[in-house]
Specification:
Shape: flat
Oligomer: single chain
Radius of gyration: 40 Å
Number of helices: 22
Structural class: alpha+beta
Length: 761
């Protein structure tokens, strides 16, 4: 180691150390110069090379009805602007590009103005030209060229105009997107569906608010990097499309309920009204209607009274009180009560019955049927009166029925019922339980009231009111909202049966007769309550709640209206309930061909010169006897006539020559078209009715592809083969049963025989 050249190594080491130190200083200095000395230059260059956080937009999801119809969909609108200045980090290129842009703009100004006028005709060509030129003179970067919002299709057309069809960096054409929800059925269930804030794109009410995060989806994020003079996108977050919400609402039922409610509101000059229709087994809401009178006298869906309006239910609450007493064993169907006095004094207050029909000894059915205040108070006082503890028990038994449960609604703003608790209610007095038992001192939203009555119809199982069944995205189900119960057993099946018997009597023999139908049983309860609010004296809340058909409940419904002056829940809400019930039951009835056959009269169809393929099927379906040896499948063009005698069809085949034109006079247009197309002719029809003339005469030699014109009209000389048309019957009042449908079928068949010239395709 003594011979190791320490000095030489150290010298070389020092040289390299100084070189690396100097290189490091140069790098640090250069970096400092770039950071501070050329900061502005490189910041501008970076702007042209990289664009960060560019949003990839997604469409908002749709809201769809139970039968697949579109209730609400996202339709974007646009505000259209021009940028008259171009940014380019290279000043020389920027000046050249700006001169080129200006020259192109001025050269195409007339044609652009003309095009804009054609697409947006509410403004003239001169207006657009002046507007565009003003922005050019001011060198605006965000100049709005049209004052109103435009549609996507209009925007696409505008982008095809000269100058605007260039790139955005050249033309400066850009837009602001405005969020708008389109409802194909107009105001139908408008408040339930909800609205979207146009600026933020977020739901502001109804289903749009409740499911906003799902409907809105998640916009994607992307930044662009300039490589080889091209902007290459780099996706930072993939977009997620908005989900579709599938509801339980039925468009036809919703529309009918709205019309029925508004018609009655106009008749009684109502302030507002609510109608809710629900399926018993599932709790599915098929229609949810809220109508409020506006200053112009029209009724509109402005507020969701059905879920957030706490109302004094009045006599419809008596069903809840009696159900609680039945469940607790305080009474039964054989319970009687003496109401002959027609009034009762409770805690210094005298409470009277509205109907004199109850002024006698009555049973439990009659207590509810006549809506006896005296009867209900006596039954509840007999079962729960005497002490604060027993009054508390009455409150507990009422609460067990689920009337004040959270309904867990699919729309925001729902309110829970408020039932006074003897322990906490400061104003509780000797008359409070009596007042509560007949529906005063309580506040219940219509949806909770309906859930209770639906629970009675469902044998004591209270279902959660369901408005949404499932949620889909890109055609796949991402969430299913199954029916579920709020209370599996709000009361026993026996109690539900007994109270149903009482509610049937209300409609069949009591004050709720206007809600009944001759075609099926209805169970329900009327309610009339004076509004206990300041500045609303003299106003009444009238209600009818029930279900149908009572012997096998399928639907429950509540109709409630508020009006100035006295009213009747049975006399005013009952008819609306009846209309809804009969419409729903008729709509759900599926008739077959046999339901339309008249068993007393034989009405054979008029089949003269016709396609025997169709005739064979029609006659067989109507029960006529077709010859067993008749097989139309073996005939090329089975055209002929049919004569029906005593339910037996006699078929006469007309043999046609494929090379000659047949006589089509008197034939229906459908059959004539079928025959001629089989002969490979091109047919043109004129007029309405049966064939009265043909451009190619009978017997004329024909060739495939030849044209023929058939003139349709009234075939006066045509005599039908059937010589015994049925006798017309006078119209009578129609009811929703099989006999009425047969009568309609008879009338239509007679009209067809007597007006054969009116057939049209």
């Amino acid at each position: 180691m003594k011979n190791f050249p320490y000095r030489q190594v150290i010298q070389r080491y020092m040289v390299f150390s100084w070189l690396f130190a100097l290189l490091g200083l140069i790098i640090v200095g250069k970096a400092a110069y770039l950071m501070f000395g050329e900061r502005t230059k490189w910041a501008e260059i970076s702007k042209s090379c990289v664009r960060n956080n560019i949003t990839i937009g997604v469409n908002r999801g749709d809201i769809i009805s139970a039968d697949g119809q579109l209730l609400a969909t996202y339709v974007p609108e646009y505000r259209i602007y021009l940028d008259y200045n171009i940014y380019n980090p290279n000043k020389k290129d920027s000046i050249k590009q700006q001169h080129k842009k200006d020259a192109t703009f001025l050269a195409t100004l007339d044609s652009v103005s003309t095009g804009l006028n054609k697409i947006l005709p509410d403004q003239s060509k001169e207006w657009f030209k002046d507007r565009l030129y003003k922005g050019y003179e001011k060198r605006k970067r965000h100049w709005r060229i049209y004052p109103r919002n435009i549609t996507y299709l209009q925007f696409k057309e505008i982008k095809q105009l000269p100058y605007f069809n260039r790139s955005r960096n050249f033309s400066g054409l850009h837009v602001d997107t405005i969020n708008r929800i389109d409802k194909p059925f107009g105001t139908l269930a408008s408040r339930t569906l909800g609205e979207v804030d146009r600026e933020t794109g977020r739901g502001s009410s109804g289903l749009q608010l409740r499911f906003d995060s799902l409907l809105r989806g998640t916009p994607g994020l992307v930044h662009k990097v300039r490589v080889m003079k091209k902007n290459l996108p780099v996706v930072d977050r993939q977009p997620v499309n908005g989900a579709n919400i599938h509801t339980t609402l039925d468009v036809v039922m919703q529309d009918f309920c709205e019309n029925a409610l508004v018609e009655k509101l106009k008749e009684i000059d109502g302030i507002y009204g609510v109608a809710i229709l629900m399926e018993v087994k599932t709790g599915d809401i098929k229609a949810l209607v809220n109508m409020q009178r506006c200053d112009d006298g029209e009724y509109r869906d402005l507020r969701n009274f059905a879920v957030n309006q706490l109302m004094q239910p009045g006599s419809v609450f008596k069903t809840i009180s009696i159900t609680a007493a039945l469940e607790a064993g305080k009474c039964d169907l054989n319970t009687t009560v003496d109401c002959s006095a027609g009034a009762i004094n409770v805690g210094g207050y005298t409470i009277k019955d509205a109907s004199r029909k109850s002024n006698k000894v009555i049973n439990l059915r009659e207590v509810l049927g006549y809506s006896s205040n005296v009867g209900v108070i006596k039954i509840i006082t007999r079962g729960y009166g005497g002490s604060k503890a027993t009054e508390q028990q009455f409150y507990n038994d009422v609460m067990k029925l689920g009337i004040a449960e959270d309904m867990q609604l699919d729309i925001p703003g729902g309110m829970k019922a408020r039932i006074p608790n003897p322990k906490t209610y400061e104003s509780w007095s000797a008359s409070s339980m009596a007042s509560m038992s007949i529906g005063y001192s309580t506040q219940v939203p219509p949806i909770s009231l309906l859930a209770f009555y639906n629970g009675i119809a469902n044998g004591g199982r209270m279902m959660r009111p369901r408005l949404v069944t499932h949620i889909t995205r890109d055609g796949e189900i991402i969430e299913t909202i199954a029916p579920r119960a709020i209370k599996e057993r709000m009361c026993s099946p026996k109690t539900a049966h007994d109270i149903t018997e009482c509610l049937k009597w209300v409609v069949s023999d009591g004050l709720g007769g206007a809600a009944g139908s001759p075609n099926f049983l209805v169970a329900g309860k009327t309610g009339t309550a004076r509004v206990q609010q300041k500045d609303h004296s003299g106003e009444y809340l009238i209600t009818f709640a029930g279900f149908f058909p009572a012997d096998n409940p399928q639907y429950s419904c509540v109709v409630s209206m508020r009006k100035a002056g006295s009213g009747s829940g049975g006399g005013m809400c009952g008819p609306v309930f009846k209309q809804i019930a009969e419409f729903v039951m008729t709509r759900n009835k599926q008739y077959t061909l046999n339901d339309h056959i008249d068993s007393l009269h034989s009405i054979p169809p008029a089949l003269d010169f016709t396609n025997l393929l169709y005739a064979n099927k029609t006659l067989s379906n109507l029960g006529f006897v077709v010859p067993s040896n008749w097989n139309p499948d073996n005939i090329t063009n089975p055209i002929g006539s049919v004569n029906v005698v005593d339910k037996h069809a006699k078929i006469h085949i007309e043999h046609t020559d494929r090379n000659k034109m047949p006589d089509l006079t008197g034939m229906g247009p459908r059959d004539a078209l079928y025959l001629l197309e089989k002969m490979h002719l091109k047919v043109k029809l004129q007029g309405i009715g049966k064939v009265v003339a043909q451009s190619l005469p009978a017997g004329h030699a024909i060739t495939p592809g030849q044209h023929i014109t058939l003139t349709l009209g009234c075939a006066l000389n045509h005599k039908p083969l059937i010589s015994k048309p049925a006798t017309n019957k006078p119209d009578s009042l129609k009811s929703l049963n099989k006999d009425s449908l047969r009568a309609d079928s008879l009338k239509k068949a007679n009209n067809a025989n007597n007006n054969q010239h009116s057939i049209q395709i």
